């Protein structure tokens, strides 16, 4: 038997029809990502596998954009909150002043200062300036093997210095 030619116009008819519906899925993915959903949760809510979700991201760039847009606003909100915590901020609270018998007499507004949070400062700085504030510790070890050979190790790098043997 010889090889038969495949009619490419009928290839789209093969296999199962895609469940992808841009009118529904774009809005749903943007909403779920804005709520902080992971890809696993998005796939579960769409009734598909994570593998299928990734396939849709590749096949439909607008889905990837919806995911990015959905995650961007919450990330900005969290970044702003972290910066406020790192710098400290003022709040205005309402206190109810009560009489001796417990009935409210008046409402009083009080300004309070929330001081900077050291943990928020460390998180901010370690992410924004990892070279200066990262959590990495530099370790260096130096061993002299003999008078002419020296081995130096700095974290994961090992450097071996060999003597010049005069052969150029």
The gross shape turns out to be flat
The helix/strand class is: alpha+beta
Helix content: 40-55%
- Poorly predicted runs are none
According to DSSP, the number of beta strands is 5
Mean pLDDT over the full residue set: 80
- Please describe the biggest sheet, giving its number of strands, its sense, and whether it closes into a barrel: 3 strands, antiparallel
> How are strands sequenced across the largest beta sheet?
3-4-5
Write structural notes for this entry.
The structure is a single chain. The protein is of the alpha+beta class. The protein has 6 helices and 5 strands, in the order H-H-H-H-E-E-H-H-E-E-E. A 3-stranded antiparallel beta sheet has the order 3-4-5, with no helix packed on it. Helix 3 crosses helix 4 and helix 4 packs across helix 5. The mean pLDDT is 80.
Outline the secondary-structure elements.
Elements: H1 22-34, H2 39-46, H3 50-59, H4 61-87, E1 89-98, E2 104-114, H5 118-128, H6 130-133, E3 140-144, E4 150-154, E5 157-161
Antiparallel strand pairs: 1-2, 3-4, 4-5
Helix pairs in contact: 1-2, 1-4, 3-4, 4-5
